[in-house]
Request: fold
Amino acid sequence: MPINLANDAFFSTEDFAIICRWTVSTTNDTYQVKAVFDNQFFEAFDEFGSAVSTSSPVIYMKTNDLPSGHKENDNIVIPITTNNITSDTTYKAKVIESDGMGVSTIRLQKQ
Reply:
């Protein structure tokens, strides 16, 4: 039996979620959406065997909470807190993947 990650507890701002600003590129309408941000770093090796690190930023959100008219290349502003200082970082939605179970993964590109 699959786990229902689309419930409200997982996407509560008291636990994992943050409030992001999503601007739909075709209309310039801005929405506040709850999402879980992940910017996991990983290490790979180049053709010479040297270590190279990179990240793959994504947000996860309830599919029903995607803004009206959303599409790839929309701007998403993510508040990122480091050392108790919060600053906004702008990303573009590059890939929007719905899992069919109520959760969407939005792959991001930093601007």
Residues 72 and 107 are 9 Å apart (CA to CA). The radius of gyration is 15 Å. The mean pLDDT is 89. The first strand starts at residue 18 and ends at 23.
